[in-house]
Amino acid sequence: MPTGGKRNMGLRERKKAKSMAEVQRHALRLFREQGYKSTTVEQIAEAAEISYSTFFRYFSSKEDVLTRDNYDPLLVSAFEAQPSELSPLQALKNAMMSEVLDMSEDELATMRERNQLVIAIPELWSAMMNSMTQMMQLIAEMVAGRVGRQPNDLAVRTFAGAVIGVNISVMLHYAEHPEEDFAAVLDEALSKLEDGLPL
């Protein structure tokens, strides 16, 4: 695909991600005001000024509003754009950091509040773990393509699982320490993985 096509695809994906983040922002406000269980999809759609059917173009359920990562397609594009001489971990770290550094303060605040709610509600934590498993598979597929192996290769899966472990630890840390710089925390955690997890 020509470079311009990739850039346009990235812009479309980013616009969609920002639209989804806006719906999440309204949903979080309603969850704060009236509780997660008492809030309906209809109320979220109305607050976000979208139709009921448009909500389901973005999210499969109310639960999905909190557990879905809007930025996966952008991560794939950023990973594929990394120079071939980088190691898989360096390429993935660069891709992840580029997406985080491009997030606005409002997007970061929404992500932090989502994480805090997910941690507090057991059924959402279970759904988040399912989402993380899907993310692990996505990372395995991305890395397998880069190194010429299969996604179900044990080494590839272990690599993907380690990265997901870092993501979970960062998610928990940021929910507990909202005053910290999320990009700096993620960078430090990925650097520890890159250095072999020294303690």
From TrEMBL:
Record Pfam families: TetR_C_14, TetR_N
Domain HTH tetR-type: 17-77
Keyword Transmembrane found: no
InterPro entries: Homeodomain-like_sf, HTH-type_TetR-like_transc_reg, HTH_TetR, MftR_C
Domain of life: Bacteria
Keywords associated with the record: DNA-binding, Transcription, Transcription regulation
Regions recorded as binding DNA: 40-59
Protein name: TetR family transcriptional regulator
